[in-house]
């Protein structure tokens, strides 16, 4: 790249190396498009080839997981840990147990995590890991045995100063407990080797709420930036998991009107807005109900639309909080036609590249996940800090710190992304994070 230094050359290079990893290609190419002018303007960045180097994971650990199911049969799964960048701190990122897990997905997530973590201002590198193991339909004992076998391999590559995993899809408090217990027994040490732990053994207040609450704190900053306010805004949220429900709760507490939730089966709509009572009921019952949204309809009213998404219903603000690439071109057109003003990503890369282009061209304010959903990893960083200091901070203190970190992220995005009277948050987030990682890479040499 030092010879040609252009976007086309970078895209050709990354595509030739990873032609069968679409998620990873999408993430790297989108970032390169935003940061290429900054890269070309700095001789040190070019001489140290930082853009290509930042696009390659520092390490990928791939291992077999052998474990015994309840029938006494030995099963075999694959495990991965993608340690993308340790330039500014220990590798940090979640573990995901899901049939869709593969190297491309984890590389894209670890890449995004590295830039997201840099935005927080906390000393954390970026990583992601997991397995294609599907916990659905498994007994608690089977999940425990799988987690123990998974950690038996992973423990060689993690630790408080090296790599600190957390939870992600299908890795919640139960799984973190099993994983942490195995690590503690093998190393005979109690400490911050994982985050997302239960409050009784080194966990932190606000960890469950952090990503959803942080998303709304970012939304508040965005609205203030555009001389707007949250009160009485119609908010469409996709998803019905931890992030979606806690975002809905905080938005409602602050005066917003949350009109939707969704899952893979359909969409729940309540035009007058969900109450905090209804949202808390969903939070308390989402794990015990087969479909918490149809149950929510029966318990607290509203309408269920089988096979639908929430984007076709009029809303001022859209918060995609479900999964990657859920908001496509047709969904973007619906939001534009309904005069939506703001889209903030609560999930990791839930908006397709084509949809982002449509939203931007329509002057809809768009905030990418690496900025908008950074609250979860920010709180993980605070859990690491509490573990290192052998202290526990109060819920209120941590909530205030979370709000402050999200305001800091917004400020960095606005500083780098202001274009006239509007802010290009995607470009601002990418450039701000890239500068920090690129500067660290140059300072540390080759």
Automatic annotation (TrEMBL):
Active-site residues per Swiss-Prot or TrEMBL entry: 128 (proton donor)
Domain of life where this protein originates: Bacteria
Annotated binding of substrate, by residue: 92, 113, 116, 167, 380
Keywords recorded for this protein, A-Z: NAD, Nucleotide-binding, Oxidoreductase
Catalytic activity reported: L-glutamate + NADP(+) + H2O = 2-oxoglutarate + NH4(+) + NADPH + H(+)
Gene3D superfamilies in UniProt: Glutamate Dehydrogenase, chain A, domain 3, Leucine Dehydrogenase, chain A, domain 1, NAD(P)-binding Rossmann-like Domain
Pfam families: ELFV_dehydrog (PF00208), ELFV_dehydrog_N (PF02812)
GO molecular function, one term: nucleotide binding
Domain spans labelled Glutamate/phenylalanine/leucine/valine/L-tryptophan dehydrogenase C-terminal: 204-445
InterPro entries (alphabetical): Aminoacid_DH-like_N_sf, Glu/Leu/Phe/Val/Trp_DH, Glu/Leu/Phe/Val/Trp_DH_C, Glu/Leu/Phe/Val/Trp_DH_dimer, Glu/Leu/Phe/Val_DH_AS, Glu_DH, Glu_Leu_Phe_Val_DH, NAD(P)-bd_dom_sf
Binding of NAD(+), residues: 211, 242
Binding partners and assembly: Homohexamer.
Function: Catalyzes the reversible oxidative deamination of glutamate to alpha-ketoglutarate and ammonia.
NCBIfam families: PRK09414.1
Listed name of the protein: Glutamate dehydrogenase
Organism: Alteromonas lipolytica
């Amino acid at each position: 790249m030092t010879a040609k230094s252009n976007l086309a050359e970078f895209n050709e290079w990354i595509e030739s190396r990873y032609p069968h990893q679409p998620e990873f290609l999408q993430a790297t190419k989108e970032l390169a498009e935003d940061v290429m002018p900054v890269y070309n303007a700095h001789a040190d960045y070019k001489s140290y080839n930082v853009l290509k180097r930042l696009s390659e994971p520092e390490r990928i650990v791939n291992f077999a997981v052998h474990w015994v199911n309840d029938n006494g049969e030995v099963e075999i799964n694959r495990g991965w840990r993608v340690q993308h960048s340790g330039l500014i701190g220990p590798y940090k990122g979640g573990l995901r147990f899901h049939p869709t897990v593969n190297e491309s997905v984890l590389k894209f997530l670890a890449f995004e995590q590295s830039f997201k973590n840099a935005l927080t201002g906390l000393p954390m590198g970026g990583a992601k890991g997991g397995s294609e193991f599907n916990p659905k339909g498994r007994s608690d004992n089977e999940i425990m045995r799988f987690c123990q076998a998974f950690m038996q391999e992973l423990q060689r590559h993690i630790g408080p100063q090296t790599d600190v995993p957390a939870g992600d899809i299908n890795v919640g408090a139960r799984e973190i407990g099993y994983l942490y217990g195995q690590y503690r027994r093998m190393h005979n040490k109690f400490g911050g080797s994982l985050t997302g732990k239960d409050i009784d053994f080194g966990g932190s207040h606000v960890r469950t709420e952090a990503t959803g609450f942080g998303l709304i704190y970012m939304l508040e900053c965005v609205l203030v930036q555009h001389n707007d306010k949250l009160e009485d805004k119609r908010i469409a949220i996709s998803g019905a998991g931890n992030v979606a429900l806690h975002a809905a709760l905080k938005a409602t507490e602050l005066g917003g009107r949350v009109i939707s939730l969704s899952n893979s089966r359909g969409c729940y709509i309540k035009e007058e807005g969900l109450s905090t009572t209804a949202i808390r009921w969903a939070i308390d019952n989402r794990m015990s109900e087969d479909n918490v949204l149809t149950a929510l309809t029966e318990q607290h009213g509203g309408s269920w639309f089988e096979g639908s998404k929430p984007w076709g219903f009029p809303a001022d603000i859209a918060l995609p909080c479900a999964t990657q690439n859920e908001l496509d071109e047709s969904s973007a057109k619906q939001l534009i036609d309904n005069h939506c003003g703001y889209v903030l990503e609560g999930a990791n890369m839930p908006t397709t590249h084509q949809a982002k282009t449509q939203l931007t061209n329509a002057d809809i304010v768009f905030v990418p996940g690496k900025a908008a959903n950074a609250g979860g990893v920010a709180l993980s960083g605070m859990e690491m800090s509490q573990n290192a200091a052998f202290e526990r901070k109060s819920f209120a203190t941590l909530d205030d710190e979370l709000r402050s970190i999200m305001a800091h992220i917004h400020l960095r995005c606005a500083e780098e992304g202001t274009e006239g009277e509007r802010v290009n948050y995607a470009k601002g987030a990418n450039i701000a994070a890239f500068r920090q990682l690129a500067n660290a890479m140059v300072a540390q040499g080759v």
